[in-house]
């Protein structure tokens, strides 16, 4: 028997997020996205959600120190090339994650500030928003809020037009994050336009034609996971965002209706 040659470890990306029993969002969406980019998935589970396509009926948090231990275990043994966060259900979880990531200075971190499911159910309260602002954004390379999340983080009404989106993106930089990608999919108009705001750069717009999608459940997860995958592969941030936007557009086009509620995107 000959032992196959070990060709070195693949690029890795870590998702620090919750499970979604429908398979549409959360860790499943992230892992499927990493795989599509040929990036090895590492996972730190933050919460188990009990949900159908119509509602989230329960959110069971994992102990914050167990979340931190999952991160440290794979960082020590395997190595993390990039990370993303999704549902962080309490301020204590945000702090535990920030502390674990503080030792991993070279790992680019993408923060998807998820506080509400597409069904409207709450996945994180004001304390989580506050902890994201003070503890996690200063450590992150990128934050990817949609309009509602951008408003909550900026302590303002959700952006209503492109100028508001740029302004909120700039305000987010004040919290110490490297860049903000404010996604405008919920804005009226015939384009879905997102803006990348970085320190010392003009805002960069990424627009695609608006699609008649079967559903958007999971789209935020897929976007942030695709950016993290790009960063794990060594892409510069604007290139990672460009590829991620194209990938989400494909996932929306392949969208599926699974149950009685709205449809989900389909990463591939
Ligand atoms: N993570 C989990 C576990 C969820 O259940 C949800 C939404 O239901 C999300 C993240 C956010 O999903 P989206 O990608 O639609 O913003």
Question: Can you offer a commentary on this structure?
Answer:
With 268 residues, this protein is an alpha/beta fold. It is built from 8 helices and 9 strands. It has helices at residues 26-36, 64-77, 91-102, 126-136, 147-153, 162-173, 219-232, 237-253; strands spanning 12-20, 40-51, 56-61, 82-85, 109-111, 142-143, 179-183, 191-198, 204-209. The strands form 2 sheets. Strands 3-2-1-4-5-6 form a 6-stranded mixed sheet. A 3-stranded antiparallel sheet has the order 7-8-9. α2 (64-77) packs parallel to α3 (91-102), α3 packs parallel to α4 and α5 crosses α6. The termini are far apart. The mean pLDDT is 96. Bound molecules: pyridoxal-5'-phosphate.
Secondary structure layout:
Elements: E1 12-20, H1 26-36, E2 40-51, E3 56-61, H2 64-77, E4 82-85, H3 91-102, E5 109-111, H4 126-136, E6 142-143, H5 147-153, H6 162-173, E7 179-183, E8 191-198, E9 204-209, H7 219-232, H8 237-253
Parallel strand pairs: 1-2, 1-4, 4-5, 5-6
Antiparallel strand pairs: 2-3, 7-8, 8-9
Helix pairs in contact: 1-7, 2-3, 3-4, 5-6, 7-8
The protein binds pyridoxal-5'-phosphate.
List keywords for this structure.
binds pyridoxal-5'-phosphate, alpha/beta, six-stranded mixed sheet, three-stranded antiparallel sheet, 268 residues, single chain
């Amino acid at each position: 028997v000959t032992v196959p040659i070990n060709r070195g470890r693949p690029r890795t990306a870590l998702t620090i997020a919750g499970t979604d029993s429908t398979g549409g969002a959360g860790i499943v969406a992230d892992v499927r996205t990493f795989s599509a980019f040929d990036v090895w998935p590492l996972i730190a589970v933050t919460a188990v959600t009990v949900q159908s396509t119509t509602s989230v009926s329960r959110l069971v948090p994992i102990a914050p120190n167990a979340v931190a231990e999952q991160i440290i275990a794979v960082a020590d043994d395997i190595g993390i090339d990039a990370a993303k966060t999704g549902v962080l259900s309490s301020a204590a979880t945000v702090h535990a994650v920030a502390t674990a990531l503080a030792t991993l200075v070279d790992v680019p971190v993408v923060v998807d500030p998820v506080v509400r499911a597409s069904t409207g159910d709450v996945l994180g309260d004001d304390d989580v928003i506050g902890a994201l602002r003070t503890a996690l954004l200063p450590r992150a390379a990128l934050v990817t809020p949609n309009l509602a999340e951008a408003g909550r983080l900026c302590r303002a009404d959700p952006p209503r037009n492109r100028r508001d989106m740029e302004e909120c993106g700039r305000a987010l930089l004040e919290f110490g994050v490297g860049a903000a990608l404010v996604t405008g999919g919920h804005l009226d108009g015939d384009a879905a336009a997102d803006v990348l705001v970085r320190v010392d750069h003009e805002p960069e717009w990424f627009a695609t034609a608006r699609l008649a999608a079967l559903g958007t459940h999971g789209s935020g997860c897929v976007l942030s996971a695709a950016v993290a995958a790009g960063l794990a592969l060594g892409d510069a941030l604007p290139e990672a965002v460009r590829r991620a936007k194209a990938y989400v557009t494909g996932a929306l086009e392949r969208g599926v209706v699974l149950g009685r509620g709205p449809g989900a995107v389909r990463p591939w």
